[in-house]
Design a protein that fits this description.
68 residues; mainly alpha; 2 helices; elongated
Length: 68
């Protein structure tokens, strides 16, 4: 898992207090979790299952319309 390292530059020295808003901290935590491998792999698997199930859904819909 890679974490971003925020470095102080000579033009912008690191401040002792964190001046980010609560929203900015929240967004950073969400971004870190979403960019991790397990989250991405799970979502890719869900999309793959959805794509594979599309022909089955079409077959199921055509069977229902002929049975009614």
């Amino acid at each position: 898992m890679l974490k971003r390292a925020y470095r102080a530059s000579p033009l912008h020295p690191q401040q002792s207090t964190d001046q980010r808003s609560t929203f900015d901290k929240f967004v950073e935590q969400i971004e870190l979790r979403v960019s991790e491998e397990p989250f991405f792999g799970t979502r890719a698997g869900i999309v793959a299952l959805w794509v594979v199930s599309m022909p089955l859904e079409k077959l199921n819909c055509s069977t229902r319309s002929t049975a009614v």
